[in-house]
Amino acid sequence: MIELDGVPELVDPVMVAAFEGWNDAGDAASAAVAHLDREWKGEVFAALDAEDYYDFQVNRPTVFLENGVRKITWPTTRLSVVRTGGDKPRDLVLVRGIEPSMRWRSFCNEILGFAHELGVEMVVVLGALLGDTPHTRPVPVSGVTSDPDLARTMDLEETRYEGPTGIVGILQEACTHAGVPAVSLWAAVPHYVSQPPNPKATLALLNRLEDLIGLRVPLGELAEDARAWQLGVDQLAAEDSEVAEYVQSLEEARDTADLPEASGEAIAREFERYLRRRDPGAGPGGAAHATEGGETATGGAAYLRDASGGRSRPPKKPRTGTDESGPDGGGGDDGGADGSSAGPGPGDSGGGE
Q1: What is the pLDDT of residue 244?
Q2: Which pLDDT value is given to residue 215?
Q3: Does the CA dihedral 36-40-41-46 come out positive or negative?
Q4: Residue 66 · residue 127 · CB < 8 Å
Q5: For residues 182 and 172, is the Cβ–Cβ distance under 8 A?
Q6: Sign of the torsion angle spanned by Cα atoms 249, 254, 259, 263
């Protein structure tokens, strides 16, 4: 372990982690943690030794010049702290890095060592997977946990997923076995537009995190980026009638499945979020809020691609981009630092691992 600036004293800390790679479709999860770090000016205080956990032929170091001197940046995982302030301050420990190539148990033990030393009350791991979801609808975000009591008290799903897993699933289980409350939040990214970035999915994850830990998140320009993203995908889809037909079929299936969600808890969550943001002095980040719904989240550079892996789809590939089906036939390994980002499908629980 490399100690950088010592370990700070924190107020009611929550650890929020995301890893580039297999569990990060569209880079949505890692971008969410990067957004928190940027908006709250995170202070890096530690980094894991890259030599212990990364295969440098898979995740290569990069060389850069600084004042004429060549330097090397090694792939690693860094920990930073953000102090949110406001009437009810709650500090965050942000863990951001690349899914390790080896020694996953030791990797998780190091993360948990920091969590224990910092008095972390809960660990929230963010992930994103590819799914049969239309880009025009709100991004589905599932909250899952292995702790039955936590599932009950925080209105989460108890995970029943079985199959290949990534570092998100491994870290969540390590937390559970260590007695640390842990939750995974999973955003579903449309498989036909899986190329990063996906600000709409990032926005959805941050909104769900906000609900989970009761902390107002400053959005900055993210809502506008999400709007631009959806507009870009709309335009590309409109150029191909088969893609447009396929998107329409996904919309119909989604609308039918979501009819019961159009009232009750979904509306209550949006109203509570509105109340939190109504008072500019209620906490940090006075940026205007936008939900992850189609009418408020849209976006710029986007690429249509076929990653259906056997699901029903247009008879020919969309014209832009390529992809390969993931381990469950539902997502490609695409978008991380090594060119891979999609995790396995949600299984029974509605969230992947």
Answers
A1: 87
A2: 86
A3: negative
A4: no
A5: yes
A6: negative
> Nearest CA to 168 among 23, 293, 2?
23
Query: Helices 199-213 & 265-278, crossing angle to 10 degrees?
Result: 90
Place of tokens 């995982």: 77
As beta bridge partners, residue 309 has none
**pLDDT tens digits for range 40-77:** 999 888 899 999 999 999 999 999 999 999 999 999 99
Q: Are strands 43-47 and 78-82 parallel, antiparallel or unpaired?
A: antiparallel
Do residues 81 and 93 touch, judged by C-beta distance below 8 A? yes
Query: Would you say 200 and 226 are in contact if contact means Cβ atoms under 8 Å apart?
Result: yes
Instruction: Report in angstroms the alpha-carbon separations of 149 from 88, 155, 177, 348.
Output: 25, 10, 14, 19
Say how far residue 334 (Cα) sits from the centre of its chain: 14
Rounded-to-integer distance, Cα 22 and Cα 25, Å? 7
Residues 20, 263: Cα–Cα separation, whole Å: 35
Long-range contacts of 317-326 (CB under 8 A, 24+ apart): 318/192, 318/236, 318/240, 318/242, 318/243, 319/239, 319/240, 320/236, 321/195, 323/191, 323/194, 326/129, 326/130
- Tens of pLDDT along 183-240? 999 999 999 988 899 999 999 999 999 989 988 889 989 999 999 999 999 998 888 8
DSSP, res 299 = B
Q: Cβ(120)–Cβ(66) under 8 Å?
A: no
SS3 104: helix
Q: Is the peptide bond preceding residue 197 cis, with omega within 30 degrees of 0? A: yes
- Report which DSSP code applies to 240: -
